[in-house]
Amino acid sequence: MEENNNPQNVKRNIAVKVNISDIIEGEYVKEDGWTPNYVSTNKGHVSRVNIIGVVVSKEESAYDTLMIDDSTGSISVRSFENKEMLKTPLVGQIVILIGRVREYNGEKYILAEIVRAIDDKKWVQVRKKELESEVKDFEAKNKDIVKEERKEFENTLESKKEVVIPKKDEMVLQPQSNPYELVLGLIKSLDTGFGVSYEEVILDSKIKNCEEIITSLIEEGEIFEIRPGILKVL
Predict the structure, then answer these.
(1) Separation of alpha carbons 39 and 101, rounded Å
(2) Which of 12, 77, 126, 209 has the fewest Cβ atoms within 10 Å of its own Cβ atom?
(3) CATH number assigned to the domain covering 133-233
(4) Buried b (16+ CB within 10 A) or exposed e, 24-54
(5) DSSP-based three-state secondary structure for 206
C-alpha cells in the first residue's frame, strides 16, 4: 500500500479505446493516494482513454472546453495547463483524444493529454470496427485478404535490401536514430498499403524493447491496430 503513496511508483495506465457511452454509463470510482481514479466499464477499470470523435462545440472560459461526439454520446474535454492544445481543433473536425477520465459535480469529463486532428475520415470507421463485437466475424471474412497481404509482404522482404538498424550504443551517437522514430519509420517502410503485422515489426527492428515501444506509440495515437495484430501509421 505504501508504494501507491509515492508518485514515482505509479505506472502509467494504458489509454483504452472506448466509446463515449462507455464512460458516461460507467460508474466513476475515486481511489486513495496516488492510485488513479477510474470508470467501471464492461472493458474493466478505465482511467485513461483513447477516443476518436467530432468536435461539436468549443467554449472559452477560465479553462477552454471542447465537446466531443462519437455517435454513441458526447463528453466535455478540458485542459487546465495547456489551453493552446484545445484552441487548434475546429468545430466539425475529427480528432483523436487521449486523456484521463475525471468527474466534477456528478459530470464526467476528459482531462486532455493529446488532442490531434485527423484528416482521413476512414479512421472513424476503423475505430468503430475495433470497438464492435463482430471483430472475429470481420477477421473470418477477410481471412483470404490477410493471407494475400502476408504473401505480398514476404515477396517484398525477399526483394528489398536488408534494413540495417543501429545497435543500442550507436543510437546514442545518432540523434535521428531514436528507437521510437526507428520503429515508426520501419512500420511506414514495411506497409504496402494494408498495414504490417506486429510480429514482423518486432523481428525486423531487432530492438530489445520493441514491444514496449509499439505499445507506447499506440497509446500516443501515432499508430493504430487496423485489425488485431496489424499496425498502421496514422
Answers:
(1) 7
(2) 12
(3) 1.10.10
(4) eebeeeeeeeeebebbebeeeebbbbbbbbb
(5) coil
What CATH number does the domain located at 2-122 have? 2.40.50.140
What are the residue ranges in the chain where pLDDT is below 70? 1-12, 61-63, 133-177
Alpha-carbon distance 35 to 136, whole Å? 34
For residue 173, the number of C-alpha atoms closer than 13 Å in the C-beta half-sphere is 5
**DSSP string for 42-90:** TTEEESEEEEEEEEEEEE-SSSEEEEEE-SS-EEEEEESS-THHHHSSP
The C-alpha atoms of residue 225 and residue 185 are separated, in whole angstroms, by 16
Give the alpha-carbon dihedral of 186, 119, 16, 147, to 10 degrees. Answer: -50
CA distance 179 to 210: 8
CA distances from 28 to 136, 157, 193 (A): 30, 48, 40
The CATH 1.10.10 domain(s) of the chain lie at 133-233
Contact 94, 121 (CB under 8 A): yes
Instruction: Read off the C-alpha cell for 108.
Output: 464526467
Q: Measured on CA atoms in the order 196, 200, 202, 206, is the torsion positive or negative? A: negative
